[in-house]
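Progress report, Aim 2. The chain analyzed during this reporting quarter is listed below.
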Amino acid sequence: MNKLTLMLVPVALVALSTPAFADIVVNGGFETGDFTGWSIGGAGGPCTFVSNLTVGYNAHCVPQVTIASHSGNYEAAIGDIPTSIYQDLATSAIQYEVSFWLANSPDANGGGGFVPAVVSWGGTQIFSDNNFGPQPYQHYSFNVTGNAGLTRLEIGTVAGQNAANYGALLIDDVSVSAVPDGGTTLALLGLAIVGLAGIRRKLSL
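Predicted C-alpha cells for the chain:
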C-alpha cells in the first residue's frame, strides 16, 4: 500500500461516518394491513380502517375508497369525524423531517367530499386544511424539532363540516427521520480534503 493510498483512508472514513438516519415511524405504509404501531383517537368507528381497495366502508359509511395506495398495497382511511391515528415516537431535542402523503376519496353520493384534515407534531399543528377536497395523493414534508423523550405524531380529521359532504382522508407512507447535521460532517470532510491536497503536493515534489 503506497503513501497516497494510506492518506486516502481518513477521507473515506469521514465519508463513511456520515450516519444513516432511520425512519422511526412503525408501519408508516400500513403494509401490515392494519393499524399495527398506531393508536386511534377521537370518535373512531367502522369508517376508520386500513384499505387495499378490496375492503370498503360498511353500509353506514360513504364514500367507498376509490383511490389506490400511494405505494405498496395498503393505505389508511379515516371517514369518522373527529378521528385521528397517532404514534408516540422516541425522539431527542433535534431536528426531524416529517413526511407523509394525503389524498381524499370523494363522496360516492355526489357530495362535495371535503374533509377537515389536520396533522400535528408534539401537539402543534404542522398541517391544517378544513376544506381538504377530493384529490389524488399529494406529498407533504415539514422540518420540526423533537422533544427529549417522546413526541406525538397525529394525523386525522376534526369537527367542523357538514357530515353529508364528508370524503375520506387517505394516508400513506408516513415517515419521521432525523435531519443530518450537514454542517459538522461537511466541515470534517472539507478539512480532510484540504489536508489531502497538501499531502499530494508534497508527494509530487
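The chain has two helices and ten strands. Confidence is low (pLDDT under 50) at residues 4-18, 183-192. These observations will guide the mutagenesis work planned for the next reporting period.
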